[in-house]
Every structure is written in structure tokens, then in C-alpha cells.
Automatic annotation (TrEMBL):
Residues 21-319 form the BBS7 beta-propeller domain. Residues 377-486 form the BBS7 GAE domain. Residues 494-596 form the BBS7 platform domain. Residues 599-712 form the BBS7 helical hairpin domain. This is BBS7 protein. InterPro entries: Bardet-Biedl_syndrome_7_prot (IPR016575), BBS7_GAE_dom (IPR056334), BBS7_hairpin (IPR056335), BBS7_pf_dom (IPR056333), Beta-prop_BBS7 (IPR056332), WD40_repeat_dom_sf (IPR036322). Pfam families: BBS7_GAE (PF23360), BBS7_hp (PF23349), BBS7_pf (PF23361), Beta-prop_BBS7 (PF23743). Residues 335-362 form a coiled coil.
Amino acid sequence: VAGLVNHSVFRQVGVTAQKTMRLLPASGRKATQKVVVGDQDGVVTCFGIKKGEAVPVFKTLPGQKISRLELGGALNTPQEKIFVASGSEVRGFTKRGKQFLSFETNLTESIKAMHISGADLFLCASYIYNHYCDCKDQHYYLSGDKINDVLCLPVDKVNCITPVLACQDRILRVLQGSDLLYEVEVPGPPTVLALNNGNGGDSGEEIVYGTSDGKLGLIQITGSKPIPKWEIGNEKKRGGILCIDSFDILGDGVKELLVGRDDGVLEVYNFESADDPVLRYDHALSESIASIQGGCVGKDGYDEILASTYSGWLTGLTTEPVHREGGSGEELKLSQEMQSKISSLRTELEHLQMKVLQEREKYQQSSQSNTAISSVPTFSVNDKFTLNKDDASYSLILEVQTAIDNVLVQSDVPIDLLDVDKNSAVVSFSSCDSEPNSNFLLATYRCQANTTRLELKVRSIEGQYGTLQAYVTPRIQPKTCQVHQYQIKPLSLHQRTHSIDHDRPMNTLTLKGQFSFAEIHSWVVFSLPEVPEKTPAGDSITFYFQNTFLGTQLESTYRKGEGCFKSDNISTISILKDVLSKEATKRKINLNISYDINEESVRHTLKLIHPKLEYQQLLAKKVHLIDALRELQVHEGNVDFLLPEYRSILEEADQLLEEYKRQPAHLERLYGMITDLFIDKFKFKGTNVKTKVPLLLEILDGCDQDGLISFFEAA
């Protein structure tokens, strides 16, 4: 793997979606493979590489955005037919570019995922799965949450059609016909599926999955139950996984796992121990990797990894050595080859500069004429707003097809901006109006030249809900801006989970009234993240959630005319009560609200919060001592006379300051949560205890758990 070098950028197409680039099988004696890629302009481009230059094979006319590109063909023959999904249509092309199929499906939504196996076509829209055989409808399934990817186990190995859906609710759904065979819980929302080794392994039943929070795993999908084989966490806090391929890049006879992430990191895992994969190589690109393939593209005899990025760049990492061994004649030949390439690039650059000048002049003339029509340039933004379980913060990732000039972030609810290591942009804050319903945050990120990807981190306060807006301005003329909105929900720090601890002391909120199943579901969607917008099938539904900041939990079960919400945190119940009654009032629906408060739950929640409180108070004290201790160190020359605990503060000063800077207002957040818990406990009893809050804050400064619990019980 040490032999992999960043060989070259082959060419650029339009903006590409996930899984839209493949390598065609090598044909005849020529061992190099052709590249085929589909972009969001609707163009399918096929090209080969000769002497480091891209040589076109065919290119189709623009059309609807291409959402997926797969290769197919009869089973056990070379898979060299090209299938593309755009809108609700699937088109097929030969390797020469001749269209042989145009299949308009019966899907009302655009195709999001596609898999092809012989004459079988598997398609998914947001929630709907359809199976076609020879373009005839066979099976249909309605998923409980959004479908991100679809795969079918190899029919020639398992002797039956077994489709697997990767769904947003952290579940792989295994189907049989139109029915659910079983569900497999995975540690994060699965974004991509791939057959292990490219063929499902020896059994044909092994599937590799990648999640949006950067985890990777292998599961054997047997006819009756799943068998988890291995799972790799995301210790390095890298991006979500968008694409996976299997290819023997090391040439040791065992296929490696190639992984592309949405932060531009390309990884190669190999199976040294034959059990768990080991990371052998990684390489950082500047954009998210939409597709990844292993093969022989640039030069016969040298394998490489080809990646296509979001804005359409195709990059190759090759095993071909840069400096070849040999005599001076070969070196001279190499330099001549290089020189001709450099001169052709110079000519192309001069031609492009001339074209830009001509177009700029043309635009200036047309904009000054009486019949001027202002044309706003369009640009594509790839955005992702997700809750991180590790530090209870939201990541906002903005990726633009051209360089970003600046991003203005505005929020109408109180949120904290957290530091991001990868972020090189300069941030400046503007003062905000203190009037109600106005700005709580106005921050501008000025990006360095050629920045196409910006990552921000924010932390919200539960109970305070509204909208976060990002105004994205790229470096293009005339100046234009796109606004993207993200909802901060009332219970924004809650994350969906598969199960909860039923032995905890729970508080219960019950709602009854003349509301439909769809209405109460829309209220839950408004209140909580990660709930599918589509009303679930059936008469009732149960969702489980965990608070990522405190570790408290919530169980919500509801049906037409009735809803039951249980949590071990009174504040969660209080926020839900306020929000749900407000939403019902908007629709003029009378609610009969009842609640059952468990006194023991307050003690339980305080015990969950206290270790975090103690840690943050200690961190704050250490940070406040650093300047004084450093001054002592300068005056005295050495610090041997200090107590060991003070010496350790000096030794760890940089890490302590880094941690404190990374989590501003963490202590204030915990104080706020305990204060809310205190107020909410007595609110349900009909008592207003706001006058006792200053006394509570004094006790919090003392950091005594028993004293805190006694104060809650005695107040």
C-alpha cells in the first residue's frame, strides 16, 4: 500500500450523486478498463485513459439528474451493460453508448437506490421498494423509514431472491417477496450496502454496510436470522461512509475493502487476521467521495483506486511508481512525455482564459444594454445536518460545487457554536437584537481560497426551538446566495434508539382527544428528530429515544385519539406537554392531558447529571488556575515546590485549555438543566419555585450531590 501515489485527476464531469461511477470489465487483450460516470446534469460519460489523457468513448445528452448507475448483464457473464436511474426512469446503454432500454416505472417519486441482478431490477424511492423482472412488476414493500440503499444476495449462490434494504432508522430490512423476513439492528443509519468480496463471500450471504456516522460492519444474512461478524467504530471521528468496494490492490490474492467518506477520506482495509479488517492506508481528498472503484485504468499492469468526488472530479491512486528504474534513455523519454503533457495543459489553460475574458465582456455588454436580463448563476449545495451522539452537538456540513466565499449563520433560538478542528475559515460574530423573536446568533465564516467544504458544530438547548439558517455565497460572478434552513426541534438532543431500560423510574404523560393518527404523528415529527415524516402503517406506533447529553430516555406510543409518553426526566415530559398542547391549540383540538409523576425519577436524573457537573466544575477550576501557575513558574524557575495536583495541571495545561475551548458554556448548560428540572418538578405540583433558584445555584457551586438531592426534596 506504501506504493499508492496520488497519480492524477483524469477529468471533471458535472456534480455526481452517491454510487454513480463504475469501471467496465476489461475486454479482450487490453487489460485497462473504461470508466463510466453519470452526473446531475443527466449526462452519462464513458472514457478510457491513454498516456495519462482521458479518451472519450461516448457521452449522452443532458437530462434529469442521475441518482444511481449500476452495471448488469446475464448472470455468470461479464457485467458490461450500463443502467442509469434518473427521476422515475431506468435507461440501459451498451458499453459503446447505444441505448437499448428506456423503462418508465410506476414510481411516483424519484428513484433513490437501485440494484441489478440478471433480469431482476430492484428500485427504491424514499419509502417504497419495487422488484421488477424483465421490467414486469413482481413485488412491493412499504418501509417504516427512508430507504438509503438496496442490495440483493447473489442468486447463483443462495438460490433465492433475498433483497436487503438499508433504512434510516438504523435497521437493515431483509425481504422475501413482498414481505418482511426479519430486521437487523445496526449501530448507525446505514447509507451504503455492498456484497463482501464483491460476491457475498463464500456463502454469498455476507453484506458490508457503512453508516452516516462513519461506522463499518459485516453481517451474514442467513435464511432465518442475521449473524454479525465484525464492526468497526469511528474512533477518529471521520465522516459518514458513502461508498464501498472490494478489490485486491495489494496483489496478495485477498481483496481489500475500499471505503469513501463524506469528509473526503479514502481508506483501504485489509484482512491480516482474517477476522477483523485493519486500516492499512488512508488518503484525504478535499471533497466528499461519492463513488469508489478498484481496477486497472491508467496503465496496463498497474492497479489503481479510482474515486469520483461530489463536484465531479475523477481521481486515481495508482500502484505505478513515479520514478521508474532504468537507464537515462527511459528517464529522457519520461521527461519528454511529461513536457508534452505540460505544454498541452498550458495551451488548454490559455484557451480557457481567453474564453473567460470573452464571456465576461459579453456579459458586461448585455448587462449595460436596455434589454438587459439579469441571470442568476445556479450552483449546487450538498448539505447534511446531523446529531452527534458522542458530544450531543449538531454537525452542519455544507459542500458547494465551486469555492465558497462566505457563509452567514443565523439562528432565532439560543445555540452555541463549537470549535471544529478541520475548519480553517475565519469566524466573526455580529451583535444581535435582544427583542423577542429576533436573532440569537449571527456569525460569518470567511473561507480561504479553494474551500469547497465547510463543517460547523452547534449545540442547542432542549425546550428552545426554531430555525437555523445558513446563507451560502460562493466565489462566482455575479454574486449570488442560497439560503438553507434547518429545524432545531423542541427535544433536539434526543436520538432514536432500538430499545430502552424499562426498569428506570418513569414519568408518564397521557393525551386524549379528537385527533387522527396522522395529526399526532405530525406533532411528534415537529417535537423530535429522526422521526419519519410519513405516517406509519398500522393503527399505532412506538418510538424509543435517548437524550445524547444526559443519557435519559423517552418512550412514545400513540394512535388515533390517544398518546402516551414516558421518560425518566421530568423536563422532557414538561417540554412535550407544552409543545403538544400548543400544536393541538393551533388546530383547535381539545386535549385531555393527564400525567403521573414519579418522585424517584428526580433523584435518578440528578445522579445521571452529577458526574458530568463535577467533571465540568473541576475542569473550569483547573483552567482558571493555569495563568496563575504559569506566572509562578516564570518567577520561580521551577515548580518542584508545588503540590503534585498543581504540577499535573501545568503539565496538562494545553489539553485542558483545548477541551475547555471545545465545549464553551458546558457548565452553564448543566446548571440550566438542573434549574429546569427543579422548576418542572414543582410546576407539575402547581407550585412556582422561581424565587428559590438563586439558593439552588449556591448549592450547585458547592457541588455536593447529597445536598442537592436534599434541597430538591425539601423545597
